[in-house]
Amino acid sequence: MREDAMLDLLIQEALGGPTPSDQTGLILRRLADENAGSESKLAGSKNQSASPVAEHSSQPSLATILIGIAAGLLLCVGIAVGVKYRSGVALQAIAEEATDNAAPSVPTPSAVVESEDASPQPKPAPRKRAQPIELAGDPSTTLDDDPGSLSPELPSQQDTQSASPSAAVPSITLVSQNINSRWQSHWKRLGVSPTPSREKESIQQELADRLGLVIPVDAIGDAKAIRTAIANPSNRQAISKRLLTAILGKNSKHQDASESLSEVLKSGSGADRLIAAWMLPSKADSNPSPDEKSDSSKSAATPWIRMLQPTDLHEVTVKTAALTSHKDLRCQRCHDVPNSGDEVPTQADYWTVAAGLAPLLNPSRANKDLFYDTLDGRRQLAKRPSQEESRAWSDNLVGSRDLAEGIVSTLFAMVHDSPSTTSPFDLSVASAASVPSETLRPLVDDLIASDFDVLRSLSILLSDAVMTRSVPDAMSPQGVLIADDQQWSSAVSAVHAMAARSPFRRPGSAQRRLQVALLDAKPNWPGDSGRDTLLAQPLGSELSADGTPSNSEKRRPEKNGDRKTAVAATGYPMRSSMIVPAWISQLPDFDSRLDHVAHLAGQLKLNPSERELAHQALASGDDEALIFERLWWIIRPNS
């Protein structure tokens, strides 16, 4: 074929083969012959149909003319409508631009369609994103003082609160009901059944014996009525003395401090400002005369240190941190607490507080560095705060939430004779039964909102669900002697969970408690010695706060009373019921463990009589856990 021949020629030329002969003429002649034949065929077909078509097309039809006229009219109408519509849109756009030049306009759909045909316009500025709608219950709208909220607060709200309440103080009845419902939830969570409520007369008698308060029977259980009853001068004076004793952990000899506290209780506000003033140096001490020489025996620089004297640095550190920061620094003097987490203060925290208080306790060592030994044998320098930081610390106590928690904890211990919280190294109760912080959080919030009205907080505690609980059967005078281990453990667990009331009341004097312990530790005393005379003295709730007998003529037991019953009435541990921390067994010897028990009580060491009693019990074969529990009963502070 022709195409194959042409393809062969092109391939040969591309491959560089021999030059072919010129075939151009032959190709042109063949193309001419083919074109001539096709034209003749086309002419014949045209001649057959040309005549009728020509005749028909020479005369245009009437329908074609009418269709053309109608199309022209429609085109004119469309042009007129379009021009009018464009004019109206332009006038509307000019009017909107004149009335609101600043606000970005949202174009209408017709304007958007029209703008596609017009010249390109600048793009309008994007609209601002709408703010999200906060739904009810959103975390951002949750109030900080919500009792049920568990979310953390901001640092400024957590460290310092305003001295004057910004919101209305809630009803004292509502706060009391809120706390009672939290106690019920706490007991349900622990699986502990609270004991039945006791008679109001029993509560009235306990408040009179333990706190020296005279409250009508009708007011028992009513926080508002109790608040009115304890505001009278005699009750207020009794509260100020016992509260100061609970804060200091010892009987106060400063009458002026008790009187100033009584005035603050009367005013119904300002307890935080009074405590902050205790931490400031007196004017006479802060501005000594030029010719006055430094004397280490001179009175301390702050009223707080004066009230604690005689004292040592460890006691000052522990009690100051407990009140002002609500921190437990009893056991960090020598080492960190093992496996305690980030919430428990460290040894460095302890010595930082001690370094700030050391110059106040001993002004002669104000410019000397304070070193401490770590558990691995290294020697560290305690970080001492500057004067500006010390001044800011006392100023920040006003309205402080930490101070409010410290006051509530002190009031709780004073009313219920038990700490509000426990630590991993505490010897008092099992940590699993400790009171959760959220249970007393409404009371802390209420204390801040009321501008530190201490009597208001005290009245809520005196009417709470814990105060109305009765004594377990295993702890009755006869149950103590006949209850088995299971019954006793259940009763102790209920008391530790605050679901039952303990009938035992420790003597307020540490010396009196030591005498009770010596009675039980020496069973071979002759009967005609002074032992029976001591046992015949009233114990437990029959003692006043300072350990002296109260109304002894009416309540003196018979001389033939059972020794164990008399000793047990004071709450002296007759069997081991507490959980001893595992870390205490890691200490090298028995004496070092005794020293750490003393540290937990805020003491540097035991006195000779207490140490001798512990060694005597160990030699007689007593279990160390029972020895520690009895020793803790003797030396544990009242607050």
TrEMBL record:
Residues 45-57, 154-165 have a biased composition (Polar residues). It comes from the Bacteria. Residues 552-565 have a biased composition (Basic and acidic residues). This is Transmembrane protein. Residues 38-57, 99-168, 281-302, 540-566 are annotated as: Disordered. It comes from Rhodopirellula islandica. Keywords: Membrane, Transmembrane, Transmembrane helix. The keyword Transmembrane helix applies. The keyword Transmembrane applies. The chain crosses the membrane at residues 62-83.
